[in-house]
Amino acid sequence: MNTTLINNLPVKTQREIAQLISQEAKALGFDIVGFTHPEKVGFAGEHLKQFVEQELYGEMTWMVDTLARRSKPNNLWQEVNSVIMLGMNYGPTDDPLWQLEHKDNGVISVYARGHDYHDLIKKKLKALARFMVQQLPKQFEIEQDIDVKVFVDTAPVMEKPLAGAAGLGWQGKHTNLVSKQFGSWLFLGSIFTTLKLPQTAPVKDHCGSCSACLDICPTDAFIQMRQIDARKCISYLTIEYGGHIERQLRPKIGNHIYGCDDCLAACPWNKFAQTSKEAKFHARVELSMPSLSDLVMLDDTSFRDIFTASPIKRIKRRRFIRNVLIAIGNSGNMQYIEQIKILLEDEEPLIRGAAIWAAEQLMNASDFVNLHKKLAAIERDTGVIEEWQQSLKAVQLIEL
User: Fold this and answer.
1) Alpha-carbon distance 281 to 41, whole Å?
2) How many CB atoms lie within 10 A of CB 338?
3) Distance between CA atoms of 40 and 166, rounded to whole angstroms?
4) Which candidate, 233, 212, 235, 208, places its Cα nearest to that of 222?
5) Which of 4, 69, 156, 263 has its CA 20 to 30 A from that of 253?
6) Where does the pLDDT of residue 57 fall: very low under 50, low under 70, confident under 90, or very high at 90 and above?
7) Which of 58, 79, 88, 229 is nearest to 146 (CA)?
8) pLDDT of 138-189, one tens digit each?
9) What angle do CA 15, 131, 25 make, to 5 degrees?
10) Which helix (H) or strand (E) element contains residue 33?
11) Cα separation of 148 and 151, whole Å?
12) Are 212 and 95 in contact (CB under 8 A)?
C-alpha cells in the first residue's frame, strides 16, 4: 500500500479531506464549518495586548496569565498546522429585547436559557476528532497519526478572530461574530490539527455605518467600535464580577440577571437569523421570563436543582441572588419589600449588600432608617457596612 505523510498530501487530497470533515461536521449537527491557519488571527493578538495593558479586563486575570498563548495559537500548541472552526446556531424563537419591559421578570442571556452548550459542543467536537483520527488515515492512506486538540471557549483560544479568518462571519462592532445566515447567534468550537488543510476565504465586514449595537448598550461599555471596557459590561458584571457592583451602574442593569444580549439582539443582520434546530439550546420553561419573586428566595439546594444543567450554576447562589436583588431594586414594585427584609439577614455578605440597595430603592425613608438602626449596628462585614452608609446617605439626601 502506498502511504503518504500528512504534510505531503497533494492539494487535491487536502480539499477532499476538508470536504469530508465538513460533511461529517454537518452530520453531527454543526451548522457552519471553515478552515484557517493558526497565524490568521491578524491584529487580534495586538488588540488583546492593548486590552490587557489598559486593564479593561476587570477581575478576569486569566486574560493576563494566558495572553501569550491566546495571542498566537502556535504558542498553545506548536504542532498545529490548521484550525477547523465550527459554529452551532442557537438562535432564539423571538427577539430578547421585548423582555426588558417586563420588570418583574428576570432576563437571562439567550445562550444560558437551555442546556450548557459547553457539554453539548465538546461531545460533538470529540466525535468529529475521532472521525478524523480513525477514519481519515484509512481512507486516504496517510502514514502518520493525525493529531488533534478540541476547544470550546474555556481554553486560551481567540475563537472569534479565527472564526472570522475561517469565513464563518465577521467581527461586528460589538466585538462578537456576525453571520449573514445566523446573525449574532453562533456558538463556536475549534479543532486544532497537525493536518495541512486548504483555507476558507474570510467574509467581508458588512457592518457599514450601522452603530445599533453600540448605541443600545445600557452602561456605555463600548470605548469605540470593537473595543469594550469589560468592567462596565453587564455580562461581565452579572457573571464574572464577584463583588458589590458599583452603585452608578446598578440602575442601568435593569432586569438583566445573567448576562446581556442587548448588543447582539440589536444587530440588523438578525433579520436573517434562524431558530436553532438543536432542542437543547431552546429555552427551558423555568428560565424563560422567570419571576423575580420566585428566584430571589432560592436557597443553595434549590439553586443547584434548577441550574444543574445550565452555565448559570457556575456563578453560585450568592452572585445570582445579588443580580436578582438589583433587578428587584430596578422594578419599582414594593411587593418585594418583605422578601428583601429576609435577605438583609442572609449569611452571604454579597446578598446582604444587594438587599440594602434594593431596600433603598423601594422603601420609604423612615422605614429604611429604622432598618438601618436595627441591622447596621450588628453588621461586621466591611463591604456591607459601606453599603449601609452609602444607602443611608442617599436616603437622607432624598429627604432633604
Assistant:
1) 29
2) 8
3) 9
4) 233
5) 156
6) confident
7) 79
8) 999 888 889 999 999 878 889 999 999 999 999 999 999 999 999 999 999 9
9) 65
10) strand 32-36
11) 10
12) no
Check: CB of residue 89 under 8 Å from CB of residue 186: yes
Would you please indicate which residues are annotated as catalytic (active-site) residues? 153
User: What's the distance, Cα to Cα, between the start and end of the chain in Å?
Assistant: 91
C-alpha cell at 364: 420609604
Residue 98 buriedness (CB in 10 A; 0-12 / 13-18 / 19+): exposed
Q: How far is the C-alpha of 73 from the C-alpha of 81, rounded, in Å?
A: 10
Helices (H) and strands (E) in the chain, counts: 18, 10
The count of other CB atoms within 10 Å of the CB of residue 153 is: 15
d(CA 21, CA 33): 9
Could you read off the pLDDT of 335-356 as tens digits, one per residue?
999 999 999 999 999 999 999 9
Single-letter residue type at 51: F
Confidence band for 294, pLDDT divided at 50, 70 and 90: very high
Of 99, 108, 32, 35, give the one whose Cα is nearest residue 273: 32
Of residues 284 and 154, more confidently modeled: 284
Q: Taking residues 111-130, what's their average pLDDT?
A: 96
In whole angstroms, what is the distance from residue 163 CA to residue 134 CA? 26
φ, ψ for residue 150, nearest 5 deg? -110, 145
The Cα–Cα gap between 384 and 206 comes to 47
Is 86:25 a contact under the CB 8 Å cutoff? yes
Amino acid letter, residue 167: G
The span from the CA of 131 to the CA of 162, in Å, is 22
Residue 332 C-alpha cell reads as 419599582
- Amino acid at residue number 372: H
